[in-house]
Amino acid sequence: MVYIPAFLINKVYEKGSLENTDDGFEFCFVNTMTPVRISGMRDIVVVADDARYQVEKIRLSLGGRPVALKSGMLEEMMSFDRDSRLTIRVLGERLRPGKHTIKISFITNEYGGAILKVSDFIGEARPRGLLQRIRGTVPVGEAQPEAGPVPVEGDLGGVPLDPDFSRLAAALGREEPDRVPLFEADIALPVQEWFLGREITSPADEVEFFIRAGYDYVPVLAPFFSPRLMRTASDEDGSLGDAERDRTWLVESEGLIKSLEDFRRFPWPKAEDVDLSSFEEVAKLLPSKMRIIGMLSPAAVFGNVSQSMGLQNFSYALYDSTSLVEELFELVGSTYVKIAERLVQAPGLGAVLMSDDLAHTGGCLASPKVYRKYVFPWYRKIGEVLEEAGLPFIYHSDGNILEIMDDLAECGIKAIHPIEPQAMDIVEVKRRFGDRFCIFGNIDLDYTLTRGSVDEVVEQVKERLRELAPGGGYGISASNSIPDYVRPQNYRAMVETAMKHGKYPIRV
Length: 508
Fold this sequence. Notes:
By secondary structure, the protein is α/β, with parallel strands linked by helices.
């Protein structure tokens, strides 16, 4: 399940819309960004504080018109146009006066599984927001001050906080900065909130987390999604907890695009409609030396094509329906190039990361010949756009990608993330390819960060620093991402240990 970044949610949630009704409560979203088309919405769940409401207790209306759900699933495509209002009404107990946390989770064909989490009040005055806490109370009726940089205060692991993108840039250039940088492609919202000790409800909160957790950048998503089928766990006996019930995964055996007719009928998002306004919003909040990493994710050229068909059907189509495969790659690849051309003009940008899983632990998901024919030509075009703009190209793929590392270098990629321990030996990767790539990652997500002790995390981080940091070109990161099942204490131990022991020259 994907946690949508808080600053995106709060751009569309209508603050103050939470209110009681005769038979429960309701809240609203207003699309202030770009048009969104949603199909196949299902598995809708609303959680208000600790109470959980299944789809039979939920009513949707868009622009005042009821949205039909048949057997708990959206019957037709829903166009969430700019300035349109989506009301979510929940049948059940009315909410008491005060603050409430509302979470709505669902699956759609376009966005996969998602969780939107907001906070609002019923019947009580709202407390001061972050800017008011920083700058003092703003009297009612006066204009709100324009957001400025979030202040840098405090330390992490005894090291003063000093976000500075030049540190990460030096590592990307395979040099030694003052200390080994921290790098992460995705950090689940519950972990961020645990670390900060409060809810994240604004862009400023998000920026503050990345400052306090020791990063030199804030990731901002350029959202583009293709259709994909997702599933949630069955909970017929009621034995699963909320996290297990909410977790989703891709269906590999089938997809929504089965034919050229399906492909031509689907309302594919256009590059010019991808909303990049969050880049400007976040850039205004950054301390002077901090930058944004633009995210072309959660799946890019190969992922969006193969997932739209289902990996199994895609594999057959490579032989049985090459025209469909070619048209899909042409549409998705060219869209990403156009997004990259827009993205490089965004304010505050320091680098771009593209996430596109090409492998499992045993090797590539498809033959390298397939990648060289359909995927890497688009990577090269994206690399050329970024090279011309002077922006480093960072690449994420799970699994064992040793067979295609040379291809990735030829596409202009400067850094590889996350080097799964179960798939590749990171020391060998650094030895063989350290003169071509900066290497991020390898703190084990299978055991160390999820089931290990704090002491085990500390020892593994120290070991990676000893083995990989000398000479530069390395950054500490988990071996995939920081999902919500990582032990928060272990995550803190990872970033604190990197801060305390990652200073050059390395002596651990």
